[in-house]
Amino acid sequence: MAAPGAVLQSEWTKIRTVRSTVWTLALAFIVTVALSAVICLVIKSTFSDMSEGDRATFDPTSSSFAGMALGQLALIVFGVLVIASEYSSGMIRTSLAAVPQRASFYFSKVVVAGALALVVGMATSFISFFLGQALLGSHKVTISDPGVLRAVFGTGLYMTFLVLFCVGVATMLRSPMLGLGILMPFFFLISPILSAVPKVKTVAKYFPDQAGQQIMRVVQEDNPAPYGPWAGLGIMAVWVAAALIGGYVVLKNRDA
Question: What Å distances lie between residue 202 and 70, 78, 193, 206, CA to CA?
């Protein structure tokens, strides 16, 4: 029986020695911070041209995370590749031969991927916030203002949950192409489109990304969600738990 510490060490070694997984995390950080900074700079220069309605709902905090719309693309790729690349390369057979205890193998991978996503997510969130606020000039807020620290900390958690959700789904699908082919359209087309369709958007607010992103906002939208920021993150946590359990059930009951 493989020792839990040894399994964790082997998963850490696999992730840090594969260039694609390392680069996707680095890109998530770079793209989110850089794009958020550019958007904050544009907002500062065009703020006087905004309508009264837009100024009333302007949220300096969430503006610092505007680059997340593109940065989460890299997080989805990371979450899928962490497990699905082992199926495409055939490495999964070697991994399960070395660690026959599938629960130990799977949850060690989940722990390592989640810990990395948490570190990168928190670094991305806090740096994006402080850089974005510096570029917003007189329109900025501070970390001590009501709800701001919650939004910054929660954004790091959102990034972590997004990665874990993708790990669970990719484990069920067992293919990087299939995983990316389903998750990419869902997060970048289906969820945003349905959240804007009048008779469907109430249901779409319970999708994992739509619910989780409520934690990033301090100022309420015109059409607020029927739950608070932490409840939204809780809804996303339920999606993550369901995906991870589904991934474990598939891994346990199917041959590699």
Answer: 24, 30, 12, 8
pLDDT digits (tens, 9 = 90+) for 18-51: 888 889 999 999 999 999 999 999 999 998 888 8
- Measured between alpha carbons, how far is 214 from 159 in angstroms, rounded to an integer? 13
> What is the per-residue pLDDT across 85-116, written as a single tens digit (0 to 9) for each?
898 888 899 999 888 899 999 999 999 999 99
Residue 6 is which amino acid?
A
Q: Within the chain, where are the H helices?
A: 4-16, 19-46, 52-56, 60-63, 68-89, 91-98, 102-136, 148-173, 176-185, 191-194, 201-204, 208-212, 229-253
> Are 7 and 104 in contact, with CB atoms under 8 Å apart?
yes
Query: What pLDDT, on a 0 to 100 scale, did the predictor assign at position 1?
Result: 63
Which of 120, 243, 241, 115 is CA-nearest to residue 179? 243
CA dist 76 and 188 (Å) reads 11
Position 214 pLDDT exceeds 70 = yes
Are the C-beta atoms of residues 36 and 66 closer than 8 Å to each other? yes
58 close to 152: Cβ distance less than 8 angstroms: no
